[in-house]
Recover the amino acids of this structure.
């Protein structure tokens, strides 16, 4: 089945970021960073991802899914580098390379998934992103156990990087397809810009929970490392559930209504997490927040990929991911600055407000951009 390789790539991609979210307190300690300094270092991820996405989009336009194995190998190599950082500047350099690999891989696998949708007539984008979240969950739980046993960042990051490298082999063998690539460099149409902005704001929320929930639980509620890992872990479980449910709901509610309802739900969950006096309520809040925000990115990336011709699909997805990753650029330093000036409760409260405003914005002007045409080809089994 042609979907197997891209789907496994989503899982490996998620496993790395699940591990990373749980390792963040250890990485912070290893490099001697404050909360604000860590937020600035994380800025390197988004900065490097942006140009890498645009380049990857053009490559995909020319070679199609055959770019997937190379992107996975690059990501596997870059994924180990933060474990060798001994200072904040060294961590920032490692994150620049990791950000470039992340941006390229994100474009490649989303373009591959939407290519499968167009070729087969079957929607798989919510399932693909659910597998990303499933990998995130597995990585978070496994890393929480490893931290409890005393493992540091290096063996954990090496393990999830090895998974990405193995997945590269599964994605080999795609046939060469001659393509006529447009001379237009990038596809920044009005619709794609709107999609990118909506997804970028959603990424501020998603990345905020992913990167800061474990640290929030340890700092504000005195959770142990093992219990703190439940923050990103339950968030990931909710993302899996939300996206699998989204696969069913999108045909009944439509993408615009699903996006509005999901982001509003995320805002409510994060309000609960921000004011929670005890660990269980905070975990419920992060879980609800994850379930709500889970549907946003698959809706946007699916709309971008399905709405483009084969020879421009990579650039269309790259344009949306490039704009949306501004959310990852702005999110960590924004939450870090607010948390450093006040506390992490204020940072999570900011995420709640952003999610609620996103829901209102999507209801007001995002419907046309989120509505996509039907798949171009009937199912071929």
């Amino acid at each position: 089945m042609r979907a197997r390789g891209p789907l496994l790539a989503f899982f490996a991609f998620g496993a790395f970021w699940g591990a990373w979210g749980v390792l963040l307190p250890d990485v912070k300690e290893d490099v001697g960073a404050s909360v604000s300094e860590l937020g600035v270092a994380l800025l390197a991820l988004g900065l490097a991802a942006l140009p890498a996405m645009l380049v990857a989009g053009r490559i995909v336009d020319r070679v199609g899914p055959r770019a997937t194995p190379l992107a996975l190998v690059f990501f596997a190599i870059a994924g180990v580098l933060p474990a060798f950082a001994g200072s904040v500047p060294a961590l920032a350099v490692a994150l620049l390379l990791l950000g470039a690999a992340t941006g390229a891989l994100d474009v490649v696998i989303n373009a591959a998934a939407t290519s499968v949708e167009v070729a087969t007539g079957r929607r798989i984008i919510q399932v693909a992103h659910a597998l990303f979240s499933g990998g995130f969950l597995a990585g978070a739980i496994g890393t929480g156990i490893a931290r409890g046993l005393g493992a540091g960042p290096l063996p954990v990051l090496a393990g999830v990087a090895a998974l990405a490298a193995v997945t590269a082999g599964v994605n080999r063998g795609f046939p060469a397809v001659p393509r006529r690539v447009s001379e237009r460099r990038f596809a920044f149409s009005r619709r794609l810009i709107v999609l990118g902005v909506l997804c970028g704001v959603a990424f501020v929320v998603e990345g905020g929970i992913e990167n800061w929930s474990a640290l929030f639980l340890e700092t504000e509620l005195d959770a142990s490392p093992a219990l703190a890992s439940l923050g990103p872990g339950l968030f990931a479980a909710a993302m899996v559930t939300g996206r699998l449910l989204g696969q069913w709901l999108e045909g009944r509610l439509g993408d615009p209504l699903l996006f509005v309802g999901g982001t509003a739900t995320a805002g409510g969950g994060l309000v609960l997490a921000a004011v929670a006096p005890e660990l269980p309520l905070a975990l419920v809040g992060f879980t609800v927040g994850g379930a709500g925000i889970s549907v946003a990115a698959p809706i946007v990336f699916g709309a971008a990929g399905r709405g483009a011709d084969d020879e421009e699909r990579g650039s269309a997805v790259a344009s949306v991911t490039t704009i949306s990753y501004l959310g990852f650029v702005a999110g960590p330093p924004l939450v870090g600055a607010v948390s450093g000036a006040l506390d992490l409760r204020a940072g999570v409260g900011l995420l709640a407000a952003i999610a609620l405003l996103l829901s209102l914005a999507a209801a007001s002007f995002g419907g046309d951009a989120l509505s996509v045409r039907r798949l171009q080809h009937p199912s071929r089994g």
